[in-house]
From TrEMBL:
This is Nucleotide-binding universal stress protein, UspA family. Residues 37-171, 181-302 form the UspA domain. It comes from Pontibacter ummariensis. SUPFAM superfamilies: Adenine nucleotide alpha hydrolases-like. PANTHER family: STRESS RESPONSE PROTEIN NHAX, UNIVERSAL STRESS PROTEIN UP12.
Amino acid sequence: MTQVIFKPLYNAHLYAHPGGAESKPIVKTLKLNVMPMKTFLVPTDFSDNSRRALAYACDLARRVDARVVVCHVYDKTSFLPGFNASEQQAYKEEAQQKLNDLIASANSEGVQTETLVRKGDTADEIAGAIEAYGVSLVVMATAGGKSFTKRVFGTTTEAIAKRGLCPVLALPESGTIKPIEHIVYAADFENGDQVTALQLVQLKELFNASLTFLHIKSKKQPDYIDDEYVKQGLLEQFPQAEIQFIEIANDDVAEGITRFVQENNTSLLAFTILHRHFLERVTHNSVSNKLLQNLNLPMLALPENGTLLDLKRQTDSETRRA
């Protein structure tokens, strides 16, 4: 396991305002784990949209020399009383054949692929697969349709993103998935945005895209750190990245983000999933929920802790060391 070590600009929960005065930021050294082997996980319910997710994952894997694990989870409670073990085994074999057919029909040439069939709660089993395979990115369809299957699968995407085990790329059911040319990160400038920048600059370079840090200024959101200090620190840490900073006032953060991405030809929206103090987490996650449920564009949910997004192509020497 490779470790990336650098000094963050600040620590949001040690940066306080005693007596109303600003404190100096406290600098800590973080060790962030980066898995040496890139593995993408694609959960599928065999819908058309999950087929699109597989095609998207294969294209991305081809760019960065990653393998793709395609996973189908079935719930044992979905079987009617009286279904015996042989009938459940028959279903598992049928699901395995569907996975094989799915990979055969996808444009997976040049990509190492693997299939996985698991039984149990969908979110729990996907989380188990993430840990078992050391997954560095989940590519998953999301849906807001009326059918029970679509609602469940869409809810599962949110549940996996919120667990914060690794980055999750959620692809919408409706709308055209465009080439990644303009990445927008919904920044709050309170929660280690330099860690996120490290990952998004890599993504920006991979696709030769533009990168915008969008901050919605809301009275409902915490404001512990001077925004200009954060911006200056990011510019100094990533001088060649050409990050654009935009700040918009709107007390409804989700609405502000939605309006901006719709008006500015955004091809990917990224945000961080927090695991912090209760009130801060509730406020932040309510915004994340609205975005995942309502926006018709690819969204990248980055965990506050957990596996970093690693989309660098390994050199031959790095592959041998791994």
